Amino acid sequence: MADKKELIIKSVEKHRQLTFDAERFIWKHPQTGYTEWTANEYLIEKFEALGYELVRADQDPKFGKIPGFYTDIVTGKPGPTLAIMGELDALDIANHPESVNGMCHSCGHNAQAASMLGMAAALKEPGMLDGLCGTIRLMLVPAEEMIQLAFRSGLIKEGTISYMGGKVEFMHRGYFDGVDMAMMVHQSSSDKPVDFTCGLGNNGCMAKTITYKGKSSHAGGAPHMGINAQYAAMLGLQACNDLRETLQEKDTIRFHPILKGANCAVNIIPDEMVIESYVRGRSIEAMKRENLKFNRALAGAAAAMGCKLNINDKPGYSPEIHDKMFMQLVEETCGELVGKERVAFDYDAWSTGSSDFGDLTCVMPGVQFQTTGATGTGHGIDYILADPERLCINGIKAQLLVAEKLLKDDAACAKAIIDQYEPRYASIKDFFDDISALDMEKDVVSYEEDGSVRLCFKK
Ligand SMILES: [Zn+2]
Ligand SMILES: [Zn+2]
After folding, report:
1. CATH architecture of the domain formed by 205-317+438-455
2. 145 C-alpha to center of ligand 2: Å?
């Protein structure tokens, strides 16, 4: 193992510049989910130049064209399949000083994507697969950030995608069929003096597009002829805010609406106001329960103002729960790489953010851990990938060393983790059946001829 460890480290370092060049290129070409065509094209060219055959999500005859791809590295000996993935998408954050067309990699996914290229190059070095069994599936996935809900709902309506998040869409397309376990690294701007961090997991989420529909009229001369959708939206959010004290700490619910703005002049009563929000929580059950309360509050406010209301609820991401045995293996491996004192794994820590990696952890053992080296605030205008050596190179080394441990000796270690893992769903199909309960699009307030007002949230 000592020789192999050295080979892995040397192979990663040999392709350091390729990794750093990709990190800078993708940073300078940020694009948001399902439009990451520039990074996609760049990486496809580089992967193909390394000799990889790709399954491309833009060339799948059964589905719409989206960015992303995967390749299987087959050892030749039967064994489990390990997926290692990196994300492609940026954020809308126009005030970041390095934003391009209003977008920036303020979550650092460019470093993930670049690391996948460095990893692919390292795995082509002689001897890297010696002694391993099974398959390593390298995946570049689009659309982790759950943003631009109207755009993505449009993609669903036109049939390009079926799900808002890239990994969920990849699951739906069958790209995870036959995969036994999954791993990825995210970037972090932790202020602790460590190189790797990891918690137990994080919240799931669902996506909401809330559209109040009123009636425009002259704001000065005839407000009585209009119905103010902006006021109805504000009232709806007030009602939701008043419900916050009924939320229970154990559920770690987060509701963070954003008003999308009035589409009219100041002297017009706004006839439409769109709100986007998530409901996040520690379990799907809690999210369903609290979402119903928020929907009732939003609809009650519409009724108070005589306004119509369309609610478009879509499944988002499932709560992410890392497999503890897999996590221990990653922790031990990171410690061997950089020293135990530079590794901070917390088996109880829970984040209230969300990731579509959570959906994978519903059906297979998975770990998403962090490399440090970014500075500033994640999703903030001061976020910078200051130390690509720690962010990228450390991450590639750690993941390849973990893969080595998992798949050597007839994959004894991988099999032990898979055997003790208890899936939340028996199959990917069962998973989709459950999350489909979160899907609802309808006008929820109706005004009857007899004067009664009806609120209805049934599909
Ligand atoms: Zn993010
Ligand atoms: Zn992210």
Report:
1. 2-Layer Sandwich (3.30)
2. 7
